[in-house]
Amino acid sequence: MRTLLVGVAAGLLLTGCGIEPTGVLDGGDAPTGVAPGVTLYFVDVQGNLQPSLVESKRLGDVTNAVDLLLRVGAQSRQGLRSDLPQVTSLGPEVTIADTTVTVTVPLARGEMGPRGADQLICTALGVLRQSGNTRVTKAVVSFTIGGQTEPRACPAH
Which of 91, 102, 117, 120 is most deeply buried (CB count within 10 A of its CB)? Predict the structure, then answer.
C-alpha cells in the first residue's frame, strides 16, 4: 500500500496539473478606486509647489482638473496662492501623444507668474498618475501667445 501511495504521489509530481506556462502578460493600467477628489498644485509662501486636494467625490480627467485650476485663479487656498490668472471664458485643451501630455491654455505666457506652468504640469501629470496612467511622464504647456514649454516632468515630484 505504501509503495502504491509513493508511486501515485511521484506520478502527480511528474505530470503536474496539465496547464502550460504562458509567460508574462501585460494587464494594462492598474485598477483605481473611487477618488475623493482632484489634486491641484498651488504655490506656498516660499515659492514651492504644494498639492491641495479639492474634494469632488471623483477624479475627473486632466481637462477638468486644469479647467478647475484656471477657474480658481489667484484665490488664496489654505495659505497657498496661484501664479495663474483666473480664467472664466475658454477652457484648456488636452492631448496625449506617446509619453507626453500637452495642455493648451487660453493664456499668453506673460499673463502668469513664474510657477504657473509648473502648476499646470504637476496638476496634469498628477491626475494621470492618480488615474493609473504611468506611461505619460512629461507635460508641455502651450500658450495662445508665447509658444510652449519644453516637455518636462513635475518639479514637485
Answer: 120
